[in-house]
Structure formats: C-alpha cells, structure tokens
Design brief:
single chain, mainly alpha, about 0% strand
C-alpha cells in the first residue's frame, strides 16, 4: 500500500523520489541514473523540435504555393473570368496573406528571420552565438531586399502576362 501511494505521489507531482529510491529504480530497470532522470526529457524535446520543424515546413510550402498563385494568376483570371476572376484572385491573395502571417508568427516564436537561420532550424541545427549575431545584423537589409525583389517579380510576371495576352 505504501509503495503505491509513493509512486502515485511521484506521478502526480505531489512529491519526488529521494536519492535512495532513484538508485534502487535504476538498478531494478538496469538504466543509469542520468538516463532515468533525463531520458524522457531529451526524447520529448526531440519530438517537440521535430513537430515544430514539420509544422514550419508545411506552412512554408503552403505559403510558397499561394505566393506563386498570387503572382501568376491575376491576369489570366481577370482576362478569362472578368469580375469573377478578380474575386477568385482576391480570395487567393487573402489565403496567401493569412499563410504569410502564420509563417511570420512561427519565425518570431523561434527567433528565426534570415535564410541561414531558417535553414538551420528546418535541419534541426542551431547557430553559434557569433553566427546568430551576424544574422541579426543582416535582418533589416534582407527585409528591404525581399520587399524590392517581391515587387520586381510581381511587375515582371504582370508584364509577361500583359505581353502574352496583348
């Protein structure tokens, strides 16, 4: 009876095993004290990291597809479907904006902004403190460059479709 209550208290975080109990448990289960105490924490941490990486990867893929759809579809949709095409494009734009917001939220959550930080995160790696400081210095420039490149890409795609349909 006493042992059941003791273990139940450990499981419910009412108390913690003393050192003697930990040593006995490690002998009974034939595992080291380190593995007994830290083993599950490390496994859980790895699973959480992998889940976060997969979620970020899925969101990034959805955003990429919607971004390309926003760039490529406006002229054909409006040309062939008139106002209905415009409404469809606005819906695609809204979905893309929402996906972008979710990606940005994840980037803030994990403090990843630059390309190198994102790649390291998706591969399950982390940057050294020096590399992290360098990447933080690049962030403002990369945001401006991304905005200019996005505008230029949009203009090029629009001119291409106007030329194609003109």
């Amino acid at each position: 009876m006493y042992y059941r209550e003791t273990v139940s208290n450990w499981e419910n975080d009412k108390s913690y095993p003393d050192v003697n109990s930990l040593v006995l448990l490690s002998e009974v289960f034939e595992v080291s004290l380190d593995q007994l105490i830290k083993g599950d924490v490390e496994t859980m941490k790895e699973q959480i990291d992998q889940t976060d990486q997969k979620r970020f990867g899925r969101l990034s893929n959805i955003f990429t597809i919607l971004f390309l759809a926003v760039l490529i579809t406006p002229v054909p949709l409006v040309h062939f479907l008139s106002y209905a095409g415009l409404v469809i494009w606005i819906v695609i734009l809204g979905a893309g904006s929402y996906a972008a917001m979710l990606v940005e939220r994840e980037k803030k959550k994990f403090d990843i902004q630059t390309y190198q930080e994102i790649i390291a995160f998706t591969e399950g790696k982390s940057l050294s403190e020096i590399e992290k400081a360098r990447e933080e210095g690049k962030r403002p420039y990369q945001k401006v460059l991304l905005a200019v490149a996005s505008g230029a890409a949009g203009a090029i795609v629009t001119m291409f479709f106007l030329w194609l349909l003109g």
